[in-house]
Amino acid sequence: MVDQQPIDPARIPTHVAIIMDGNGRWAQQKHRPRLYGHKVGVESVQEIVECASEWGVKVLTLYAFSSENWKRPSVEVSGLMGLLKSYLLSELSKMLKNRVRLISIGDTQRLPRDVQEVLERTIEETAENDGLILNLALSYGGRSEIVQAVRQIASEVLAEQISLDEIGEKLITDHLYTAGLPEPDLLIRTGGEARLSNFLLWQASYAEIYFTDTMWPEFRRSAFSQAIAEYQGRERRFGRTSAQLGSG
Ligand code: FPP
């Protein structure tokens, strides 16, 4: 494995979003059950959260459980729920020490009651923290997020709280689960696949996308620094030309 890449502290992405893929395949390559991959994946979560805090990332969104993941075998779903709960319970003191604030996006009402309770408690207990915002996407799907925003907006129109003319990009953005958060600057997917899998469909419009073959359980400090170094080498034009940006 290569060492940590030099990263420019002045150009750290404000919001990094990660599709943590490859746990199952990584475990299977080692002739271990898939859940073992998720377990080691939690260690990667711990290390990446630490790095993000240390490097000054403001928001880290992790795709921990998609709305489609409910279709997995029940033993894997309950294993993942158990890992999530124990992660939240065991990390609280570290979150408080490092001023990490936990939030979540997704249809969290679908989570088992005990997981919801621990999640709500962790969110409350870290609410005043002013460091990294750790945003867990749980039972999250980008399309259903847009559907719920449309429903909410339609009901506000019907109730004559807003008019049709007021519907624009900002209003839609403000009705998503991520309302109030900056858009992701860098979206990383580990595990070798090159697709978005229903993650942050609206919000990732201008994100720099970074795909890596590294499986999530092996995505640690040096791999993360490589992703950030590559991001820092890219030119973000937002539809403009290089000349307009003064760099061409
Ligand atoms: C994708 O790997 C990963 C997931 C579906 C779950 C990610 C969960 C964790 C890393 C652990 C729990 C999370 C937290 C925040 C404590 P996969 O199973 O789809 O891998 P595969 O593509 O190789 O099958």
C-alpha end-to-end distance: 34 Å
Principal-axis shape equals globular
- Any idea how many domains? 1
- Regions with pLDDT < 50 over 5+ consecutive residues? none
CATH first level:
Alpha Beta
User: What is the number of beta strands?
Assistant: 6
Please describe the biggest sheet, giving its number of strands, its sense, and whether it closes into a barrel.
6 strands, parallel
Secondary-structure element pattern, one letter each = EHHEHEHEHHEEHH
Average pLDDT confidence is: 96
Separate helix tally: 8
- Compute the CA-based radius of gyration: 19 Å
Strand line-up of the largest beta sheet: 3-4-2-1-5-6
Helix coverage percent: 40-55%
By CATH, the superfamily comes out as Decaprenyl diphosphate synthase-like
| CATH third-tier fold name | Undecaprenyl pyrophosphate synthetase
